[in-house]
Amino acid sequence: MKQDKFKRIVIKFGIVFFIVMLFLTYFSKTIDNLLLPKVKISDVMTGSLSEYPDTMHTHYLLPLSSVISSEEVYVINTLENGDITVSSVSVNICGSDDLYYEVTSDFLFSDMQVVYMTSKEISDGDRVYIEEGE
Amino acid sequence: MKKIIKYIFLLLITAIFLFPVVFMIACSFMSSSQISEMLDFANGEYKNLNMIPEMFSLEQFYQVFFRRPEYLLKFWNSVIVTFPTVIGQVVVSSLAAFAFAKLKFPFRDKLFFAYIVLLILPLQVTLVPNYIILDNMDLLNNFLAIILPGTFSAFGICLLRQSIKYIPDSSIEAARIDGASYFKIFTRIILPQIKSGLVTLTLLCFIDNWNVVEQPLIYFDNSTMYPLSIMMSEIGNSDYGIIFACGVMFMIPALIIYFYGHRDIDLSFSDSEK
Fold first, then answer.
1. Inter-residue contact B215 to B44 (CB < 8 Å)
2. CA-CA distances (angstroms) from residue A74 to A58, A85, B31, B144, B168?
3. Can you tell me the distance from the alpha carbon of B196 to that of B202, in angstroms, rounded to the nearest whole number?
4. What order of strands is seen across the sheet that includes strand A60-63?
5. CB < 8 Å to A25, chain B
């Protein structure tokens, strides 16, 4: 009698185990993405806000919200395994208007993408999930 | 005093056998940094080899279950390879064993001798002929390449034949006189009496196929078809931490089957001792 009860428990555990494994197999990526900070990104544009641009350095225009207080921006890196991470890059602010900061940086390039909105606080090296921008 | 020494000796043996499993479970709850630090093999020894996590962490399980779904797919490859093989082998072996043990037909014993020879042959000997046959049947890169040879394995037949042999012929003859067909005799008289043998075969066959390594490597070109047993040996090259969580995941189905049938298995071994 006691043995039958134990067997029933084992069977139930087995069924639950396989159902959980099946569920995780189908939804693991979805769950992982749900747990990641969601970010919106924008391409780094070259350009200047002033009428007489400095030709010595390349100037970039970045959305106001992409530059954090310490004059840093987060740029997107895609790793070999497909993971998307962010890394911080320091920038020098040269000017701004209602929409953009004009910046210069030795570590910023025109093919990069910067984070301008995030659902959670992010730090250097964090994995993120890119949401489609508006 | 003798009894105490005996128990201490048994406890030591048990601890030695259980150590790898306990170590694996303990490591699965460590952070990846602790594991990589611990398994840093330098100057001929491991640094800080311990079994207690500095900080309890589910990071390894998170990696396996959420970040690396390929391991879950490999788990299902193992299930696809193992479960049909086990079911097939139990069905085929029990029917064949019944025939070898209780039915009379020409060359029965010689045929069974051939089966015993097949059992003695190492797996590696039959790999190449199996490969050629499977190639001709166009079954390479197909899960059936592992399922079919496993289903018709000689081991199960030999194991169950021994169990069926101990069933008295008189009960079968009585059933025949009452008009029972051989199939009815098999299902109503033989199967209930060899339950412990069937459970033992299920467990042994399950472990054999769950840990399969050689056949997938030879029969499958596509690595996405590899079962988890192969991936377990490859994970070590890239990430030590994940191997422990994968190991725990890999162990659970075998434990479930053992816990379900352990009384029957113990019974079959104790019966054979008598």
1. no
2. 19, 9, 27, 50, 80
3. 10
4. A45-46, A60-63, A100-104, A92-96
5. 69, 72-73, 75-76
Across the interface, of A17, A25, A32, the residue whose CB is closest to B73 is A25
What does the alpha-carbon distance between residue B235 and residue B71 come to, in Å, rounded to a whole number? 10
Fold of A38-131: 2.40.420
Cβ contact (<8 Å) for B252 and A35?
A: no
Tens of pLDDT, residue by residue over A4-36, are 888 899 999 999 999 999 999 999 888 888 888
Structure confidence at residue B12 as a pLDDT band (50, 70, 90): very high
- Parallel, antiparallel, or unpaired: how do β-strands B45-46 and B41-42 relate? antiparallel
Q: Where in chain B is the domain with CATH 1.10.3720.10?
A: 70-273
Question: What pTM did the predictor assign?
Answer: 0.80
Residue the block writes with tokens 């069937």: B198
* Amino acid making up residue B262: H
Q: Which CATH code fits B70-273?
A: 1.10.3720.10
Residue B63: C-alpha distances to residues B23, B69, B241 (Å): 19, 9, 9
Q: Where are the domains of chain A?
A: 1-35, 38-131
Question: Could you identify the residue written with the tokens 């940094």?
Answer: B33
